[in-house]
Amino acid sequence: MLSRIVGGVRPGLALTIKSPWTLANYTRPFATVGGNTSRVPPTPPRTRATAISHDRATFTIRDGPVFSGKSFGAAANISGEAVFTTSLVGYPESLTDPSYRGQILVFTQPLIGNYGIPSAARDENGLLRHFESPNLQAAGVVVADVAEQYSHWTAVKSLGDWCAEEGVPAVSGVDTRAIVTYLREQGSSLARITIGEEYDADQDEAFVDPEQINLVRKVSTKAPFHVSSGTGDFHVAVVDCGVKENILRSLVSRGASVTAFPYDYPIHKVAHHFDGVFISNGPGDPTHCQDTVYHLRRLMESSQIPIMGICLGHQLLALAAGARTIKLKYGNRAHNIPALDLTTGRCHITSQNHGYAVETSSLPSDWKEYFINLNDSSNEGIVHTSRPIFGTQFHPEARGGPLDSSYLFDTYLESVSRYKKSQAIFQPERENRPSPLLVDLLAKERVGVVPTTGMENLMRMGEAGEEAARAARAA
């Protein structure tokens, strides 16, 4: 069925959609695409919510220091990888970024929460205005000081209330300077947040290492979904490894309708129905996504279609090309990191959130380095020497800013336009515009993605979604 997304339904084709998405959930009496169908998914039950806790809280780094503070979020004990961000603003966007799945996020900005948390309002394309995904993605939050009283015209609740509703523990009153100093010297480390209990060294063995888990599987849609654009006629396939809402917005607002596929979907089998392929950001170790790498390699061998990757998508693109990735000591997570464009000599201030990077020396001869990090000289982008394929480690679509490099979406869609025109010459009958019927049938939001409740429950929570996804692909 999915191979017919743009071309309509074959006569006599029996259309069956099995759990977790069903025909009853998504059909309407008539198939109509007037602009974009409103993306207002049903509100999931808040089974993770707890009353806001103000108990004693302990932040423990494995084989490292222990910090005592005060809870201001959910009454829940979790473990994960402790990382830090130097971003001054944009905490709602950061905390809902799927790339932070399984991580305890430490903010270096001394005061967090002063402008509260905005509503889950959606824009004209049905995309979340203020968040990068429907739920808080980080496993835990650590700050020096939290603003319990907030002030902003978009705010509807406090940071603490939001964390409690989402079942995410949060700690304030700790020395984040000491935490960050330790993480910079020792590297990103496993850590725990314990609410209302004294630290017990015997619990050290309970630390869960997210490096051993395929986190992308947890945040990727379990079935295709579609976002229509009312301003253009491009159609881009997105490999959803944990795509941010503003990546979708950056494509849709430039005239590209988007159909997003699960991270391990054989994209090379349907790419000929699209004008471009895009590989999204996502969490964790890229080497866990071997199916994605294989499918991308097959795609590049069999098609001249334009491809762009961001963050994890950039790393997967490099692996598919034959390069290697490495884990950085403590990663790059900030809104003010300088990246040098090696093709123009211009420096861009970029937003970043990653713990892995492409090893430049391993790039094949038909690829070259595109951007480099001026802080640590790590790779920030790669580009094919003769084909319209490139990736960036940083986020050109950054919410919370900066937008210095947002032009890269224009660069990508210019190559999409050229490809579409060239295909029209050789295949005049080719039509890649989305089929109205299947656009109506497809979901308009991520399917089957389970919210986080900390690393201890991460594997158990994803089992149902994974089984449903396997059943759907086997059908």
> Rough shape?
globular
- Please count the helical segments: 11
Oligomeric form: single chain
User: What low-confidence regions span 5 or more consecutive residues with pLDDT below 50?
Assistant: 1-47, 454-469
Mean pLDDT: 86
Q: What share of residues are in beta strands?
A: 25-35%
- Kindly report the spatial arrangement of strands forming the biggest sheet: 12-14-13-15-16-21-20-19-17-18
Major sheet: 10 strands, mixed
Query: How widely separated are the two ends?
Result: 11 Å
Q: Based on DSSP secondary structure assignment, what is the total number of beta strands?
A: 21
Q: Cα-atom Rg, whole angstroms?
A: 22 Å
Share of residues in helices? 10-25%
- Helix-and-strand structural type: alpha/beta
List keywords for this structure.
11 helices; 10-stranded mixed β-sheet; 7-stranded mixed beta barrel; disordered N terminus; 475 residues
Structural account:
- The chain has 11 helices and 21 strands.
- With 475 residues, it is an alpha/beta fold.
- The strands form 4 sheets. Strands 12-14-13-15-16-21-20-19-17-18 form a 10-stranded mixed β-sheet, with helices on both faces. A 7-stranded mixed beta barrel has the order 1-2-10-7-4-3-11.
- A hairpin with a 5-residue loop joins strand 19 (367-373) and strand 20 (379-384).
- Helix 7 (290-302) crosses helix 8 (312-321).
- The longest helix has 20 residues, at 407-426.
- It starts with 22 loop residues before the first helix and ends with a helix.
